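ping. complex inputs:
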Amino acid sequence: GNSVTQMEGPVTLSEEAFLTINCTYTATGYPSLFWYVQYPGEGLQLLLKATKADDKGSNKGFEATYRKETTSFHLEKGSVQVSDSAVYFCALQQLSGGYNKLIFGAGTRLAVHP
Amino acid sequence: EPEVTQTPSHQVTQMGQEVILRCVPISNHLYFYWYRQILGQKVEFLVSFYNNEISEKSEIFDDQFSVERPDGSNFTLKIRSTKLEDSAMYFCASRGDRGTNTEAFFGQGTRLTVV
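pong. complex structure:
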């Protein structure tokens, strides 16, 4: 079945460091891929998305490129801030017999220190 | 900006009691979902709902669970007889269409604690 695998956390970085959170997926066909973020005490917010191979999603300085050949959608940011501390979820969405439920990875907790 | 609203934000209930979690999806959306997140674990799909009926449900969504859209705005998740293992954050989500390119919008969640 479809699945998403994320690197385990927590990831601890100093402010202005470079961030990579790895995400790989298993799916038949051509899913859309998403990164959601969950700030402390809050719900899930869409961070960025990509809907086809080689698309790059970007938002708030974060980027991720849909790589079909490696089935990956790694999240990157060139310079993290303390306010980026949150849990990041990679997810895929694919048309199935149902109505496009999201399948999430386990989440990666990011802690950024001043 | 339109948003999905969930109430209550936190519910504590005794084991065996019934609970109803409430959601108001974005007004012109047609596809509704419940997900849950047990503390420290991944977000899991429970059920999808369209045109006043369940379109898909996971194995978690057993006979103790039900969903309903009682009027034009609310979407509820009922757990008939809560168990300790139902303690989790429950997220409601809605989408405007079923295309794979369309993202789901999530509410802030209801933290359910079963004691």
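Chain B has no helices and eleven strands.
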